[in-house]
Amino acid sequence: MEANISEIRNELQSWDVLWRRIELECQQLHTELLKIREYKDMQEIQIKHQSSCAQLTEQLENKDAELLLLAQSQEHQQEERNKIRNHLHREEQSHRSEQERMKTEISDLTQKLHQKEITIATIMEKASLLERQLKMELEIKDKLLAKQQLLNFRYNVIKSENTHLKEMV
């Protein structure tokens, strides 16, 4: 979307450059027209060369026609520039609203992520507590098992002594 906006801006700048060139040409044509009119006036006063007057008149008419065409072209280009500006404005508004939507979405996702992080931290705490409890229970059972094995060993020793004593009796 930003590429489109950049492309439209570049096109608008191109139109501005073209517009300035046309205005410069118009000024040059106006200057040239004034020169031609001065030359025509001199020729009319001197009336030496009627043919050159006719040529100047024709040139003047051609220049007038060119100026008229340039003026029409300028109007058309101004309309195009206005259309491009309006399009650029709409694109910028669309881009801004899209950015706002994305900011809102990112904010919502960030909030959800924060809630999940809190949940994970709580679960990790509970898991750590359960792990400690299990280790303690396991140690107690290991101690009880060791006592049980010791008692079984003593029992077997006593049993074997009893058996030995019975045999002796």
Automatic annotation (TrEMBL):
Compartments in which it is found: Cytoplasm
Keyword annotations: Coiled coil, Cytoplasm
Region Disordered: start-end pairs: 86-106
The UniProt record lists the keyword Cytoplasm: yes
GO biological process per UniProt: centriole replication; de novo centriole assembly involved in multi-ciliated epithelial cell differentiation
GO cellular component, one term: deuterosome
Name recorded for this polypeptide: DEUP1 protein
Organism from which the protein derives: Steatornis caripensis
Gene (name only): Deup1
